[in-house]
Amino acid sequence: MGFTRPFVLFFASLWCLPLFAIAQPSPGTPPTELPLMPMPASVERQAGELLLNGQFKVQLTGYTEPRLERARERFFARLTGETGILFGIEPVDAPADTPALTIHTQTHSDPVQKLGEDESYRLVVTPEGAQITATNPLGVLHGLQTFLQLVHITPQGFSVPAVTIDDKPRFPWRGLMIDTGRHFIPLPVILRDLDGMEAAKLNVFHWHLSEDQGFRAESRIFPLLQQKGSNGQYYTQQQMREVIDYARDRGIRVVPEFDMPAHAQSWLVGYPQLGSGKGPYEIETTFGVLDGAIDPTRESTYLFINRFLGEMTALFPDAYFHIGGDECNGKEWDANPRIQQFMRFHKFKDDAALQAYFTARVQKLVAAHGKIMEGWDEVLQPDTPKQVVIQSWRGRDSLFDAARRGYRALLSNGYYIDLNQPASEHYLVDPLEGIADKLTPAQAANILGGEATIWSEYVSGETIDSRIWPRTAAIAERFWSPENVRDLDSMYTRLDAFTDRLPAWGIDTRATTENMLERMSGSSDPKALRVLASVVQPPKGYGRGGLRHYFTYTPLNHLVDAVPPESDTARDFSAIANRIAAGNGTQADWEQARQWLTLWRGNDHALAPTLDRSEITAELAPLSSNLSQVAEIGLNALLVLESRQPPTAAEQAQWMEVLKGAEKPQAVLALPIVQPVEALVEATGKRLR
């Protein structure tokens, strides 16, 4: 996650640990220092290491199938990438006792992966060899990912520590939703994010395929959906089948979402007869909750939807089918006299009642095609059939209400990774926290898990990886690991290790940032811009849209797009500054704080002359100046704290005024080091008087 953190030094420090057995972790303590994410249910460390060399082999025993053969090939490819050793070619003269990973699979998994299938596995590593045992191929896939995360460098070469791991997920539904409607995401990006999902043991790819801004799935029955509703950016049916097959090979279900009745303007461009308004309709280029909505009062609407569902449910084999159902503002319904007459005739008191009518009819169509309907909070009504699955974007109160009433549900509130919250905030959101003790065991079992969601207003195929990863791995741990695995320091240490391995899956968020900085600066070594980038963040929440107006065609090539949602450097500096402010700073803390603040103070002098090369960088001038001023104040505060000579009230007030000004975003970017510097300034008054 940091721009220049050395891989080898990190792992050297990580693995210089005593060998001891590790029991179930207690709350609030690091569960283990093994760089595993998600943390397994049970880990017992043993003495010794299994050394890896080119003769290392993988043997499949018990049940086998082509999917396991392909998993072995991917495993060898990843292992070669981790070590530089060519694996998978067994020498003719290899000795009989060559170290091996033996995989024993008891039986097959279901032909179409199902919710709740057994995903458990056991991994035992000794200095002589290793074994993965699992009920079915799903457990094997997870065990192979755990083995790969254990590979590290030692003085003797690459090895895996001796360990016994018994593992299974806490929740059966562990998903990632990617919105490909607002901005189209190219197929290779989808495939590599599926690889990342496999590494994080996520098992549901929720594919959001339609939005006001684009209809992204090829329909052969209604071809105008993509021909007029996508600007030519959509997935062919062959490509969608490729994604489904690719995901199944990695133990991932694919659940499609076609949003209705709202967020559906792209449907109406080619088929305006579906709409509730006068039209004509165009592909939307702005974002937000828009007015276009499908007409729920015409029988022709349901004939269309039924034929469309028949085509798409045949294409997507999963048992679940998501129909959206969120954020219908009803304005087109309210403005349509015929729809208002329909509502009066049926005694629908409001738009919510009309939507409930629409949802109930669509649910019957989905069921008639052999699928289980899933939808957002809004689809839950008093008479909603109990088999419908509710996805909650509103929060735990809605989740609790659904589970209490006997509906299966999953949580996404708290896991909106497009809102640029730090990994720590997502990590501490638990689907059952605060409500488990209010539910019966049967009701609590209705909470299936959750999904991280990436809405695509402000991402492109180039930048989406850095918004999904690595924070989604922390969310994946919440869904997989025991609920008492909550230590933030341990999580961040292991998240760094996970990030170091992402390039093996083609996901290199650090390289993407560096490439964008080079492009923005016109330099192959943008040192000063890199320094600025390391301590800024996009604004949290929904603030970005209020700072600049965006369209679907707005280039996403500015610094706000290049930097990750969370600055590692700023987070580390904040921890150091807070220790110093509290009087608990070590000598190393003081030295590191001075070093960073000195670097930041002088960076504007190096960066400012280069910023006028383009408008992309020119907008950074106020931000760069703010960094320099904030750093200067931080150095002054350190000097005061060290000399124990308190500042005058006027000096402190002046410092705080500058800092408050620097809190305001510049170039759609926040400067997160301001608050820790404020803590240092406040300490000069509190501690020295």
Automatic annotation (TrEMBL):
Positions of the Glycoside hydrolase family 20 catalytic domain: 171-482
Residue ranges annotated for the Beta-hexosaminidase bacterial type N-terminal domain, each copy included: 35-167
Pfam families cross-referenced by the UniProt entry: Glyco_hydro_20, Glyco_hydro_20b
Class of this enzyme: hydrolase
CDD domains registered for this protein in UniProt: GH20_chitobiase-like_1 (cd06570)
Keyword Cell membrane among UniProt keywords: no
Gene Ontology biological process terms in this record: carbohydrate metabolic process; ganglioside catabolic process; glycosaminoglycan metabolic process
EC number assigned by the record: 3.2.1.52
Annotated InterPro entries: Beta_hexosaminidase_sua/sub, GH, Glyco_hydro_20_cat, Hex-like_dom2, HEX_bac_N
Keywords, ordered alphabetically: Glycosidase, Hydrolase
A GO term for molecular function: beta-N-acetylhexosaminidase activity
UniProt keyword Transmembrane present: no
GO cellular component terms attached to this protein's record: lysosome; membrane
Recorded family membership: Belongs to the glycosyl hydrolase 20 family.
Protein name: Beta-N-acetylhexosaminidase
